[in-house]
Amino acid sequence: MSRRRLSVSICAAVSALLLVPAASQAKLEFGLQAERLGSQTLSEAEVHRMRLAGVDLIRTPFEWEIVQGSGPDQEYDFTNFDRLVAWATKGDLPQIDILPTLIGTPFWVEGAETNNTPPTTAEDLDRWANFVTTIVDRYGKNGPIQAWQVWNEPNLKNFWDGSPNVNEYAEFLDLTDKAIRRGDPSALTVLAGMPQRPDAPKPQSEYLKPLYKVKGVKSDFDVVATHPFANTGKQVVESVQLIRDLMDDAKDKNTPLWITETGFASAGPPHPFRRTPAGQAKILEQVLTDLRSKSRRLKLEKAVWFSWRDADTDPPVAESNNRWQTYSGLFTFGGEPKPAWPAFVEFTGGDPGDGSVAIP
Description:
Blueprint: H1 3-19, E1 29-33, H2 44-53, E2 57-63, H3 64-67, H4 79-89, E3 97-103, H5 122-141, E4 147-150, H6 166-183, E5 188-190, H7 204-212, E6 224-226, H8 233-249, E7 257-262, H9 277-298, E8 300-305, H10 340-348
Parallel strand pairs: 1-2, 1-8, 2-3, 3-4, 4-5, 6-7, 7-8
Helix pairs in contact: 5-6, 7-8, 8-9, 9-10
């Protein structure tokens, strides 16, 4: 454990003992995934609706390509993220936390065939680190964000240059964690969330075991994240337990676990993750109830539903969106609440609001 992680843990433990009732220590926070580009695909009304409902956090990409898309000499443009942070924090409603996923390689980076291709050259890695330090300093040390997630699903080929590589990610994690510390020494570094489902080319369990064997890697993160997509609600919870057991076996028992994506669809093509709208609400209730009851034993602190709103109409305008993920939202693409929305708000404890929500 690094000195930073040790000091943060001690402070947290003392605060918990002195200030927090024992019953509240096991509180599981519930969040929502807001898909790509943050405030470019969210409206202020949507963030207001989340805050009204008592949603604890929004997970969304904070993308390098949005901040510096035209070239390495472009001055950083934080307009998009400034707007989202303002929506999440201003006004009288309870603030909503933001969990940024640091990702999004610009097209001008060498070898970047997609924005999910990580930088690899020494020069581009330096540029990445500077972006990370700058954005963490802006919204962390001087702002409302306390935790930063390093990339997304590097155990899948489409998020890691076509071929998942544990050692490459470990080096990238070390570089990014150091950049985060420079921006805010008290910030939390969150490991990339990874799916555990059996059809993944390298399920998270097979990725984490060798990752834990990389010398010094435990000092590079404060939280392990998981994406337990599965065919049934029971399998979701079993998947989380599997990751917790793996962490414990790696002598990482004190590190908390966050679910940064899990969900089921309400429409779309036939798929084991697809349900009817009523079935989506039912399995959401089952999964979140079970996770909450086991959260203390699992050291599970947060659970993020994938996702806030559908990504297309039904049937989809874009044929590439004809997949279950498109319809995992708690609202339709047009902003109409599904039965799963009030079911979700039963867990957050707020007001689901009335009718549709205005979208961009």
